[in-house]
Amino acid sequence: MKLGFIGTGNMASAIMGGIIKKQIISADEMIGADLFAPGREKVKSQFKIHVTDSNKEVVEKAEVIVLSVKPQFYEDVIHEIRDDIRDNQIVITIAPGKTLAWLAEQFGKNVKIVRTMPNTPAMVGEGMTAACPNEYMTEEETAYVCTLLESFGRVEIVPERLMDTVVSVSGSSPAYVFMMIEAMADAAVSGGMPRPKAYQFAAQAVLGSAKMVLETGKHPGELKDMVCSPAGTTIEAVRVLEELGFRSAVFEAMKVCEEMSKGM
Ligand SMILES: NC(=O)C1=CN([C@@H]2O[C@H](COP(=O)(O)OP(=O)(O)OC[C@H]3O[C@@H](n4cnc5c(N)ncnc54)[C@H](OP(=O)(O)O)[C@@H]3O)[C@@H](O)[C@H]2O)C=CC1
Ligand SMILES: O=C(O)[C@@H]1CCC=N1
């Protein structure tokens, strides 16, 4: 087995889906463990990967192991597997707040670890993942892990001090964007548009806007100004968003998210 998952929930499924779609690793070379039988069965039927109820079996069989349980279960899972981890294996973590120093302490031995923060758009190959390798990872091993992570989106190696900021700007942010799409669609429905069409219009507008930021290299403010025709419709919408504290709401929500990550 090339890749193993301990925990087969939402984020693990998004990663599995992205990797299988890009055919970097076949489903037959992946194994996932989950205590929750319906969770295991879901990924088995969806992706045809091997599944087990034993975390130790994943460690026994996989070269690279993704710890994809909630942060509060990290300590127990690491203590369960630490004696079985071999020198040549690589552990990928995806939990907020779990620093490389904390992870080293829990393993209590020299383990190759890459601390990452992915996001669920991995499911459609548009993930954004930040990665921090520890001192036991060679350049080749880090490059291999980056190839895996790139199979489901963009990857950046970042200094570890930025990881809590990454949680707020990309790990958690799909939730805020989905809320915005939902709100936009509700307003479109109120204007008379059938709901399925409203989601399509709102989502495509968000997708296209994001692509413009990434592909033109222009400042988002300049792109916004290009939409605001003089005495037009958009500038009135912008006025109301400013009045209702749109920017401030996003800013404050992200600061709370970052602080929460630090405390985990
Ligand atoms: N969801 C997201 O968008 C993102 C999540 N993450 C991180 O990914 C990790 C997983 O989150 P997410 O996928 O959302 O959570 P989920 O609850 O969807 O998935 C976690 C899975 O692990 C199972 N589990 C719990 N304890 C164990 C154990 N001891 N051994 C094996 N399996 C276990 C859970 O079972 P049960 O339900 O029975 O407890 C559940 O099926 C977290 O650390 C999270 O912070 C990172 C970036 C984005
Ligand atoms: O909500 C959470 O805690 C996880 C981490 C980033 C996204 N989801």
TrEMBL record:
Q: What is its EC number?
A: 1.5.1.2
- Residues binding NADPH: 55
Pfam families, A to Z: F420_oxidored, P5CR_dimer
> Mind listing the UniProt keywords for this protein, alphabetically?
Amino-acid biosynthesis, Cytoplasm, NADP, Oxidoreductase, Proline biosynthesis
| Segments forming domain Pyrroline-5-carboxylate reductase dimerisation | 160-263
For the protein in the UniProt heading, the enzyme class is oxidoreductase
UniProt binding sites for NADP(+):
6-11
- For this chain's UniProt record, which GO biological process terms are given? L-proline biosynthetic process
Sorted alphabetically, which InterPro entries does this protein's record hold? 6-PGluconate_DH-like_C_sf (IPR008927), NAD(P)-bd_dom_sf (IPR036291), P5C_Rdtase_cat_N (IPR028939), P5CR-like_CS (IPR053790), P5CR_dimer (IPR029036), Pyrroline-COOH_reductase (IPR000304)
Which Gene Ontology MF annotations are present? pyrroline-5-carboxylate reductase activity
List the catalysed reactions: L-proline + NAD(+) = (S)-1-pyrroline-5-carboxylate + NADH + 2 H(+); L-proline + NADP(+) = (S)-1-pyrroline-5-carboxylate + NADPH + 2 H(+)
Tell me the Gene3D superfamilies matching this sequence. NAD(P)-binding Rossmann-like Domain (3.40.50.720), ProC C-terminal domain-like (1.10.3730.10)
Q: What is its main location?
A: cytoplasm
What pathway or pathways are given for this protein in its record?
Answer: Amino-acid biosynthesis; L-proline biosynthesis; L-proline from L-glutamate 5-semialdehyde: step 1/1
Location in or out of the cell:
Cytoplasm
Chain ranges of the Pyrroline-5-carboxylate reductase catalytic N-terminal domain? 2-96
Cellular component (GO) terms are:
cytoplasm
Instruction: Show the PROSITE patterns listed in the entry.
Output: P5CR
Q: Which SUPFAM superfamilies match?
A: 6-phosphogluconate dehydrogenase C-terminal domain-like, NAD(P)-binding Rossmann-fold domains
Family listed: Belongs to the pyrroline-5-carboxylate reductase family.
Q: What does this protein do?
A: Catalyzes the reduction of 1-pyrroline-5-carboxylate (PCA) to L-proline.
PANTHER family (UniProt xref):
PYRROLINE-5-CARBOXYLATE REDUCTASE, PYRROLINE-5-CARBOXYLATE REDUCTASE 3
Q: What is this protein called?
A: Pyrroline-5-carboxylate reductase
